[in-house]
Structure to design on (289 residues):
């Protein structure tokens, strides 16, 4: 039983090929399987020198899964908000008073949770501090069955 | 018929050892690749943007995009690929940005290297590789 399993070859490719990219599926190799898609909302803090706000979901997988996280930026970067993949940060160009806006959108996973966080503020050098801007982000998340670590 | 389907365990494990020990579980859909490709982005005044790919799916699909970048010391292209989106703080509140995002019809790429701060080439050409999946992110 040295050679067994399931192979599904691409059109025009032969099942005897030894090239993994010739296959749609080959049970010898790992894939990416969508185990759990979800969305999490985060509403940013206002006030002086705000800290990032974090939201999480208890996936309870018992291992660190691979994941993808997408979110729409609050700042019009290049003329429109961007539906980007995390992690993401952006700082606008200086205003005439040296002021600018910045946002930080991050994600990470543990063996029990997926975490997303957001920070969105307006910095004024005259005041020497940042003021939080209220915004609600929706983080779209896909948790894969496959774990980050190989074992 | 509450539990049926196909499970394929990793070598050395049993299919009942849990999802982390599986190569495949038919309970979960696999990512399906719509297209892969590569290209170049030529910068103008240290920045550039382009539509990388038109998928015309009518929804925002999952994707990966990797791109080479400019070294902040030498200003020359580093022929290694980093996954977008990412940014790097360069100093005096200026950062470089290598951003990729999707619309319901396209995959977009935008780069700002902030190269004027360190002498990077204003017209450098960067290489990118992308994968667009059929599967929607939401």
């Amino acid at each position: 039983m040295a050679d067994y399993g399931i192979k599904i070859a691409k059109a025009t490719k032969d099942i005897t090929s030894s090239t993994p990219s010739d296959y749609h599926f080959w049970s010898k190799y790992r894939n990416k399987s969508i185990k759990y898609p979800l969305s999490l909302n985060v509403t940013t803090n206002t006030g002086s020198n705000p800290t990032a706000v974090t939201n999480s979901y208890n996936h309870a997988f018992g291992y660190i899964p691979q994941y993808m996280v997408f979110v729409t930026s609050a700042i019009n970067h290049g003329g429109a908000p961007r539906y980007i993949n995390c992690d993401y940060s952006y700082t606008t160009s200086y205003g005439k008073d040296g002021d600018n806006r910045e946002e930080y959108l991050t994600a990470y996973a543990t063996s029990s949770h997926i975490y997303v966080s957001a920070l969105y503020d307006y910095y004024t050098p005259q005041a020497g501090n940042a003021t939080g801007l209220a915004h609600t982000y929706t983080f779209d998340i896909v948790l894969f069955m496959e774990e980050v670590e190989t074992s | 018929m509450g539990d049926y389907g196909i499970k394929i365990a990793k070598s050395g494990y049993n299919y009942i050892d849990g999802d982390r020990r599986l190569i495949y579980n038919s309970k979960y859909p696999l990512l399906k690749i719509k297209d892969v490709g590569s290209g170049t982005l030529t910068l103008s005044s240290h920045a550039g943007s382009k539509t990388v790919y038109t998928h015309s799916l009518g929804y925002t699909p999952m994707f990966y995009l990797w791109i080479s970048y400019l070294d902040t010391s030498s200003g020359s292209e580093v022929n290694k690929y980093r996954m977008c989106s990412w940014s790097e703080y360069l100093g005096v509140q200026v950062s470089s940005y290598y951003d990729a995002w999707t619309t319901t019809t396209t995959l977009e790429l935008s780069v700002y290297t902030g190269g004027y701060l360190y002498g990077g080439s204003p017209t450098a050409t960067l290489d990118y590789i992308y994968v667009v999946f059929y599967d929607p992110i939401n």
